[in-house]
Amino acid sequence: MTSISKISAPVDALHGDIGNVASGDVLVMLSKSGETNELTTLLPYANAKGAFVIACTDNEKSTLAVKSDMHVYLPSDGEVTPFPDDDELGNNAHTEQSTHTETMQNNQKINAKGPPVTYTALQLLFGDTCAVYLMELKGLTQNQYALNHPAGRIGKRLVLKVSDVMKDWKELPLARPEMNGMEALVQMAGTSKGCGCLLVVDDSRKLLGTFSDADLRRALTKDGELVLKKTVSQLMNFEKEYPRTTTSSAMAFDAHLTMEHGNTVEYLPVVSEDGAKTLVGLVTMRGLAECGM
């Protein structure tokens, strides 16, 4: 069962938005005093539409409390305000300059007659509590929440898959294993921007390894200028294991965790799920960041 909630200013409701209210709908009115003119004016029209009206106020004897279908008493101990009480205004007129500082401090204390600054925060807390209770009552799962909130961090973690964030293999800088070091360097300089490496594949597009800047540095440190004459198959994955990989059906967030496990890597090849290790695409840290992961 799906529940849809809408918010409307009372003035807008009086000028047409009440048309969104249908018989059987629950209409919640929020007012500290329970005497807000726009809401008391709206109340009989809401009743005429067949809505079940719940009033949430700090006054159990108010118009909204008495005339609504249900009243929720949300008490308040007062308001934090820079304005003094009426009694303090009279007293302050006769105070001496020496007590000016003390008066200003008193003015910052809770004032029962101030504008509903604190009370609006209390109403938000009450509303959030009701929302959480309804989610629990309806059995809303985290995955369902993510589908309804895709732009948030939870939504991205639980919904986005690797296939949604990866670069397709056709966009990637590929290298053949027999290519020599000089050719690999030229290709890396010209085509690997945004990927961080060359992806070494055979004729069937099976991923053999990767050749990155880090591989080049390690090879140069060990072999010097001889690197230029070596083949890519000798330079790829230089003095390291076969690269970490993922699949297109994996969750993007899990791929992110894989990239950050141990020594962080900037890219993660995506291979087929049939065990053939056919190159499908590439996930990069930059791409994940652009998606808000």
TrEMBL record:
Disordered: annotated segments: 84-111
One GO BP annotation of this record: carbohydrate derivative metabolic process
The keyword Iron-sulfur is assigned to this record: no
GO molecular function: carbohydrate derivative binding
Compositional bias (Polar residues): 92-110
Entry keywords, A to Z: CBS domain
Pfam families reported for this sequence: CBS (PF00571), SIS (PF01380)
InterPro entries: CBS_dom, CBS_dom_sf, SIS_dom, SIS_dom_sf
Keyword Cell division annotated: no
Domain of life from the UniProt record: Bacteria
Segments forming domain CBS: 166-226
SIS domain mapped to chain residues: 1-140
Protein name: KpsF/GutQ family sugar-phosphate isomerase
Taxon lineage: Bacteria, Pseudomonadati, Pseudomonadota, Alphaproteobacteria, Hyphomonadales
